[in-house]
Amino acid sequence: MSAFDAAQHMRCNYGGDMPWPVVSTKNTYENPWITVREDVVITPDGGEGIYGVITVRHPAVFVVALTEDDEVLLVEVDRHTVGPSLEVPSGGSDGEDPLAAAQRELLEETGHRAGRWAQIGRLQALNGICEAPEHYFLARDVAVVSRDRSAQTAEGITAVHRLQVSEVLSRIARGEINDGESVAALMLALNYLGRIR
């Protein structure tokens, strides 16, 4: 049996035929949060190529926290990769139930709890190179319950902002909020609330 024929029989992680059959695979890196592997694949045109894939070990969670005054809580965080970034509260689920993880992240990153929660979407991050499921939540009736900033400091969060929805949209339009997952979270939340036409 040729490598191509053998690859045709391989299955992807989700149970179907792979559109890019894998001839061979090897893990090149791993840590507690991600693995990186290199697949030798048969490309759609029948050639052979190399594909690097990052797998996130646990789904991520993203929270759009909305106050009674129609303000969104955003964190200003200094990212190792891109520097300062304005984002919705987020993080890894670390094996927890996604809602529990979202509640934990909101508290750790902003010092707030929410009275009402709704899951508003599930997405995949960077489909071209990742296996990275994400869960998106809307948190309402938020209130400050903690002024302890130690968790924020540990994650590089320099400030928590409360911005009107109109200001958030203006900042997205100006490119001042450019974290793709935060933009997706905000759009999912506004769609859920019936505020996108």
Describe the protein.
This protein is 23% helix and 44% strand. The chain has 197 residues and is α+β, with helices and mostly antiparallel strands. Strands 1-2-3-9 form a four-stranded mixed β-sheet. It has a four-stranded mixed β-sheet with strand order 7-4-10-8, sandwiched between helices. Strand 1 and strand 2 form a beta hairpin. The chain is elongated, with a radius of gyration of 20 Å.
Brief rundown of the structure:
With 197 residues, this protein is α+β, with helices and mostly antiparallel strands.
Q: Main sheet?
A: 4 strands, mixed
Order of helices and strands: HEEEEEEEHEEEHEHH
Give the distance, in angstroms, between the N- and C-terminal Cα atoms. Answer: 55 Å
Q: Whole-number radius of gyration?
A: 20 Å
Helix content: 10-25%
**Quaternary class:** single chain
Uncertain spans, ≥5 residues at pLDDT below 50?
1-16
Biggest β-sheet: strands ordered side by side in the sheet: 1-2-3-9
How much β-strand is present in the residues? 35-45%
Q: Helical element count?
A: 5
What general outline do the C-alpha atoms trace? elongated
Mean pLDDT: 90
Count of strand segments = 11
Derived structural class = alpha+beta
Identify the notable features of this structure and list them briefly.
single chain, 197 residues, alpha+beta, four-stranded mixed beta sheet, disordered N terminus
